[in-house]
Structure formats: structure tokens, C-alpha cells
């Protein structure tokens, strides 16, 4: 049934059924108790009347039903009454009786003699809608005199009828009042559920960090809320990964795509020899492969899948990698008339994910180029300390303020100066965050020394290969 899909209607329905059962039971009990009370009353009445006759009987043995009836009517005002005085002679086995009745069907009251009774004991029984009593008034010389009375039973009494009507009318009214109260209470009880629904509705992709406050929630739905909050945690985490992947990927694809486009556009400007076309296509192929690798590695990086990332760790010759990266960046640098000089290169075998390490070094170099003035020099060099190689990239550009320095690795953080640069050069503030993420995976440390207006020095501390393998395996 559709109605049972609503928890509130379901509760109200069960409450109504329970109430109908309780109210009916209670009404039946009240009615039966009242009925029994009336019946007891009638017995008492019959007894009182019977007892009332005893003194009269003692005074004058010859009692007439009519006299008794008149007297009782005067005294008690009871009109519908059947009185019968029975004389029973055991010896001759004769029964004489005299009766007076204001009840219909007097013939019904052909009352059997109660032989069981002791003197003055009363015997009650029902005859159709009448209650009958029989009392042994006299028992001597084989003669027994019974005084018998019959009164209409109270089943049809207006009191009982009134009670019945009241109960029949009151029950639905009480039921409606109870349902109204139950409805109010259920609404109040279900209020937290409504609040939870409201909070859930207010959560969207834009505010996935919002959580449902489980403090005021009743314990019964607390578990549901906590489960939902956990689901939101997971969703938020996945959402962050997806959005960081898309921003990281678009950040890193900008340069190679510009290179590919530039090469193709230049090539198409005029007829070329097959060899020239071949050269361009080879360059495009190299860049395309790099794009592909970048996407794969960034995807793993945002998933923080270290196991998968370290699968791509290989022994690399840093002294060979650096000139390769510099030649890659020099086209970009020359557009800004910045020269990238390789200063001091020493043979160094390191253990790294080549694609990612390239991305990191390129980003640092690109910053040095961007934040240097036209015609400036940028140096990249190495030095060797006890357990580490130091890769140093130094520029003489605008520098970073002390206030900005602690935040440059934050995602989307850009120093004010950088922000006010020309729109064509404006970045996203992601470069160093990606660098940091990559270096963390490698367990490389990074240090930035910078003085505003003088320049910036970035130092990457790369553990020597044995040390590196030890760190990664631990
Ligand atoms: P993009 O995402 O395009 O790299 P970005 O260069 O602004 O943008 P980051 O590379 O993360 O972002 O650098 C963060 C901020 O640090 C920069 O906005 C800049 O203010 C400052 N910064 C980084 N490197 C240098 C540098 N060599 N010289 C001066 N400021 C720098
Ligand atoms: Mg940058």
C-alpha cells in the first residue's frame, strides 16, 4: 500500500488501531461494570423490599398481595412490580397463591418455589427481561409461605442506554483527539529527519565540505547521519582529486600543446621538403608522447597511488636530464629574452620518476623565467654534499616577499606582485604546488631563498641513489 511508504501515516495507522482496541475494550468494561452495578442494585432493591415485608407479616399473618403492593408503592414509588404470596402446604401438597402485578405478561411469573432456601433466605433468578426473587417468609406446620417479587431488569434502563450512546459518541471524538495529539507528537519527533533532509538538500558540488550536525540528532538516525557524513568525506576527497587532476593536467598541458601548435603552424606556413615534414612530425610525436605520459603520471599523482607511481621509478642520470630540460625550456625563455645557463653539472645517478621530475624542474625554471626581467640570466647547477645532490636554480628576478614565501607551495597561491603582472603572463598559482607534490612522492626536500627585488634561489635536495632506495623501501 502506498500509504505505508509514509512513516508518519504508518505510525498514525498503528496508533489508531491500538487506540480503537483500547477504547473499545475500555468501553465494554465500563458498560459491563455499569450493567453489573445495576443488576446488583436490583438485587439489593428486591432484598430491601422483601425484608420490608417481614415486620408486616409478623404483625398480621394474613398478608394480601394488594396491600403489600399499595404499601410498597407508597413507600418506594415502584410501580412496575409483580408481587406474589404463595402458601404451600407440604402435607396436603396444595399451593395457593395470590398475586398482583403491574408488569405485562404476568403469566411469566409462575415462579417455582425455592425449596432450597432457609427461612428468610432469598433466591434470585432471571426470567426473560425480569429479575425475580423468592423469599421464604414462614416455615411451620408443614406450611411454607413464599414472598415473591419480580422487577423489570435494568438492561433497558435509560441510564444504560444513555451510557451506551455516550460511549458510542465519545469514542470517535476521543479517537480524533488522540490522533490529533499523536500527529503533533509524530511531527515533532520527525522534525530532526526534516532538518537532516534540509541539510542534505543544501549540500551540492559547490559546498561538499559541509556536514550534517549529528549533535542534536536522535540516536536512532544518528548512525544514518554519520554514514552520510562519511560518504560525503569520500565524495569530497574524490571530488578534490578529480578537480585537482583536471587543473593539474590543464596546467601541464598548456606548454606542450603550445609547442605542438607552434611547430605545426610554422611548418604549414610554406611548402617543406619531406625531410622537414618528417622532422616536425618527429618533434610532434615526442611532445605527444610526453603529453600522454604527463596525463598518466598526474592522474596517479592526484590519486596518491604511490605504489603505482614508484613502479615508474628508474635510475636516471641527472647530469643528462638537466640539459634536456633546459633545451626544452629555452624556446619559452628566449621568447622573453631570458637565458638559462647550465652552471655546474656533476655526474649524478638518481632514482626517480622521470616524467614527474621533469614536470617539477620545468615548473621551477619556468617561474624563474617568468619572474625575471627581459634579458636576465637564470642559472641551473648542481653541487654535491655528503648524502645528497643539490639541484640549484637561481634567478635575478623580482623575488618573493617574506610574507608570501611560506605560502608559495599552496594550491592557487599567487603573490600580489605576480597577480598584478600582465594578464598574458598570469598563472594559476598551481606550479609550485605540483612541484611540492612531486618532490614529496620522491622524498626530496625543497628550499626557496628569496629576496624581494634581488632574486630567488630554489634548492632541491636529492638523496643519493642508495640512500633514496632505502627511504623508498622503508
Ligand atoms: P602557475 O600555476 O602558472 O605556475 P604561478 O607561477 O603564479 O602560476 P606558482 O608557480 O605556484 O604559481 O608560484 C606561486 C607564486 O610564487 C607565484 O605567483 C609568484 O608570486 C611566486 N614565485 C614563484 N617562483 C618565483 C620566482 N622565481 N621569482 C619570484 N616569485 C616567484
Ligand atoms: Mg609558476
Overview of this protein structure:
Helix 1 packs antiparallel against helix 3 (158-201), helix 4 packs antiparallel against helix 5 (274-303) and helix 7 packs parallel to helix 8. It contains eleven helices and twelve strands. The strands form three sheets. A five-stranded antiparallel beta sheet has the order 2-1-5-4-3, with helices on one face. A hairpin with a 2-residue loop joins strand 4 and strand 5. With 474 residues, it is an alpha+beta fold. Magnesium ion is lined by residues 363, 366-367, 427, 431.
Q: Order of strands in the sheet with the most strands?
A: 2-1-5-4-3
Which structural class do the helices and strands define? alpha+beta
- Termini Cα gap: 61 Å
Largest sheet: 5 strands, antiparallel
The helix count comes to 11
| Helicity level | 40-55%
Q: Strand content of the residues, in percent? A: 15-25%
Radius of gyration: 55 Å
Work out the number of β strands: 12
Backbone shape:
rod-shaped
Along the chain, the helix and strand elements come as HHEEEEEHHHHEHEEHEEHHEEH
